[in-house]
Amino acid sequence: MSRPRIVIVGAGFAGYRTARTLSRLIRHKAEITLLNPTDYFLYLPLLPQVAAGVLEPRRVTVSLSGTLSGVRLVLGEADGIDLDGRTVHYTDPEGGVGTLPYDRLVIAVGSVNKLLPIPGVAEHAHGFRGLPEALYLRDHVTRQMELAGGAKDSAARSTFVVVGAGYTGTEVAAHGQMYTDAQARRRPPRDGVKPRWLLLDVAPRVLPEMDERLSRTADRVLRERGVDVRMGTSVKEATHDGVLLTDGEFVETRTLVWCVGVRPDPLVEGVGQPLERGRLIVDPYLQVPGRPEVFACGDAAAVPDLNDPGSFTPMTAQHAWRHGQIAARNVAASLGIGDRRAYRHRDLGFVVDLGGAKAAANPLGVPLPGPLAGLVTRGYHLAAMPGNRVRVAADWLLDSVLPRQAVQLGLVRSWSVPLDTASPELARVPGRPERGPDASARGLVQDRPGEQPAKSAASEGPAGDGGTAEPARSRPGGEPAKNQPGGEPAKNQPGGEPVRNLGPAKAPAPGTAPDPAKRPDRPATPAEGDS
Fold first, then answer.
1. d(CA 502, CA 415)
2. Does the pLDDT of residue 485 top 70, yes or no?
């Protein structure tokens, strides 16, 4: 008799934990297959440190094949799930298509960027959801500082606007200010213009979901560092020359970072099961009602919060990591191995890295001040990472004694990291265009095979580099994610739903070839927070 086939779609916090736990529980009693677009697990909470040059990119990635023994890795993007036929259809990185049959399915596709109806954001903003976006932002900020040295628009180039004062936006602004200040000290601009970072949010305070004392700590650290923190303010319109704020002020800038939220992967909508704000509704055992062989977890699943009846657990990395363990146990139980468990969580608190020795932390509900918070924050991340701990600690040590290497590598171009993409974890490449879920509605078109995206004036706006076409990106949500080091959506952002992360730009030149890595286009669905 053949062994049962278990297919896990997605290797984010939930999918990776599911695969790792199942490999220990099942051992050789079932075939475990993990379908993912990349061959690594990305530790999202440390992305701001990658963008600021503290950590090298590979430090926040963990090899799937190297850490998941007994798990077969299939590189590809799921573009359809046939529940009746019990198959998952996917497209591999080279455009080939394949099908994975299953006896048990775990849907853990996570979340993607979302485009908000704010004029100009899609064309002129940058997002912060995947590793390509972090690498691009690092190059972009470095380039703007270098160009500002002798440019007439030096003030605009050395001004950086971050929208969303949740976890990610706060960390990006805190680390970004330190990064650009260090560059300015080593190479002072001839006109004396200093780097300027603005952090905007319509919420009344920074990190609105945190304890007020820690929110005040973060606000004080940002202001002392020179960040212009403006609460009750957001972006009304983004243009080529800057951004118009909701208070009427126009800020000249070439950089707009949108950190206002995420939404569930659009693949979930095509499954054909009941949804809650774009997430698959599951029972407390993470099973899809009426489909006992199908499980869902992480940002893709609306999991009942047994500690708060009538609500669902927020979209945070902390919950996704725990979902994965319970999903694995319940999949194993469905095969007669162990007993199943309902998902119930206990709040572990949160940590926010503000750069250097500064942080805001609330482990187990105990607010910590000063350097102790910084020590606990970094200790938490080292403990939470499933790999690379020594390398991360080594980078932190080197960063404390050596100057950062402020160079632009140019490996990720602006057009390769668009906002409206169903795959923020992948950079677009020539000949393999990808159109996001909102592209058709906005009239966006695809690249011609092998053709570079066309340059346009619009793409050189606040997000522009002054010489290359610049798309952007975005992340939004519905309810703020609570108590999570990975990221928190800012409340009540303009556009109807509270949000939290970026927005990209225009799609490249039109073409006729279908996108092999493209997921089905579906209407955007409001969702929650950020993992």
1. 15
2. no
